[in-house]
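The authors assume throughout that readers already know how a fold can be written as discrete tokens. A single example would do more here than another paragraph of explanation. An entry of this sort, consisting of the sequence and the corresponding backbone structure tokens, reads as follows:
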Amino acid sequence: MKTLGDTLKCAREEKDLILRKVAAKVDIDQSLISKFEKNERKPTMEQIIRLAKFYNLSESELIINWYSEKIAEELKYTESISEILKVAEEKINYYKAQENGK
């Protein structure tokens, strides 16, 4: 399974780019991009969108990867993960229904 960092690093290497050039084009510090690629830091949503556009990657897939890693990191040592995710999905649907009813 590819991490978000792996995906970003592969995209950069496929385009044969060095970190400095990517950093200049997307206006994100070179050391931050390096940390993203090493999975030492997570980019912000805005940074994800900029990187997706720059590398011509699916914005949707990167966002899914980003959220799934946040959730996995938060729950990795928790029991009843399936039940937590099921209830969370139900709550999301409830919140959406409440918003649509207004």
About this structure: The chain has a mean pLDDT of 94. The first helix runs from residue 4 to 14. The chain has six helices and no strands.
